Each structure stands twice: as structure tokens, then as C-alpha cells.
Prior knowledge:
Helix content of chain B: under 10%
Largest sheet of chain B: 7 strands, mixed
Structural class of chain B: mainly beta
Number of helices of chain A: 0
Mean pLDDT of chain A: 94
Shape of chain A: globular
Low-confidence stretches of chain A: none
Helix content of chain A: under 10%
Strand content of chain A: over 45%
Radius of gyration of chain B: 13 Å
Mean pLDDT of chain B: 95
Largest sheet of chain A: 6 strands, mixed
Largest interface: A-B, 26 and 28 residues
Strand content of chain B: over 45%
Number of helices of chain B: 0
Radius of gyration of chain A: 14 Å
Oligomer: heterodimer
Distance between the termini of chain B: 31 Å
Distance between the termini of chain A: 41 Å
Structural class of chain A: mainly beta
Shape of chain B: globular
Order of helices and strands of chain B: EEEEEEEEEEE
Amino acid sequence: AQKVTQAQTEISVVEKEDVTLDCVYETRDTTYYLFWYKQPPSGELVFLIRRNSFDEQNEISGRYSWNFQKSTSSFNFTITASQVVDSAVYFCALSEFYGNNRLAFGKGNQVVVIP
Amino acid sequence: DTEVTQTPKHLVMGMTNKKSLKCEQHMGHRAMYWYKQKAKKPPELMFVYSYEKLSINESVPSRFSPECPNSSLLNLHLHALQPEDSALYLCASSQAQGAGQPQHFGDGTRLSIL
């Protein structure tokens, strides 16, 4: 069975600090996909990134960066120089190749950026 | 602005009412999803439609009835709901139901059952 663990429930940072969100996953499949979504207070989940299990290249998009390490089953997310607009709940999710595109979500990280 | 549009944004209904939630996307996606999300919890999958056919029903009570009239529209008909059904209902779509297709979500409907 697939499982995603996001251990930190709420993280508060002062604006311009960096924040790293940890995501650890479990799956027996060799082919799988990992996602990060952002959910601001307005409610919609915003797709941020998808990684497949064969691509361990790290990625940077503006102030966002992701570190995928299969050896530790982790897919961590860092926000550099945080801003108040980054305040949201961030979900890590896993989809297995034969899972009919079902997403197994972690419990989410509530990030609060204090001005 | 999200490309998946949900209406209404808020809905308050009594336990004997019948109402419908609507979802529309114009991205040409062929898979559409309904999720239920309680406060401070991740979304839970309810239904998936693929090419307008029901593909997944996650053992949802029959008081929730999905409908996919065409490839752009997804409805969720509600009848005789319970107070514990109060939640944020999210619609999502993806290009197809194939593995790893990113799902794109709407803003949701905040439902309150009196």
C-alpha cells in the first residue's frame, strides 16, 4: 500500500527565511509519481510539480526547489526567501503506476509566513 | 485564475434538501474527479470519471450521486445529506486517467448541512 508522511504539521517562519518541507513515501511499485500541491486559504489545490521515480534530478523553479532522493524515499520541498503569499497548506502526494491515478496525500504542512 | 470552475462557492442546505454541485473545465481533459476535504485533512477521493464513464466509486454513500453529462461537465447531486457531510468539495481534472497525470483542481464548494 502506498503511504506519504509529512511529519511537520505547522511551520512558522519570518519573511525572507527559508523553509523546508519534508516528505517521506512508501510504495512497493518501481514506477510511481510524486507531486507537491499548494492549498491557499481560498481552497483550490495548485499543482506545483510532478516527478517520476526514474528522474532523480533536482529541480528549481524561482524560489521553489525540490530534492528527490530514492535512497531515503524522500521528496523534500524548499521555499527560499519566503514571502507572506507563501502562507498555505502544502501537500505531498504519491501516485502508483497501476493506481488509476489515485493520489495518496500526506497530511499536509501548514506554512505561516510572518511579515 | 483556476481553469476548473466550480459552482456554487458556498452552499448551505438542510438534511431533506436536494441540491447539485457543478464543475466545468475547458482544457480538453478526459478524466474528472470529485474529492471531499474536511478541515485540516487532505482531500479524499470520492469518484472518478474517465471519458464520461464512471471509473472509480470509493464506496461513497448513495446520497451522493455523480453525473458526467459531457467531457467538460461534472455534477454531484446531493440528497438527504447528514451533518458530517459538511466539508469542502473539490473537483479536479486531468488529461487522462493514466498514471502520473497531474490533476488540476477548482476552488471548491464549501458545503454546510444544517
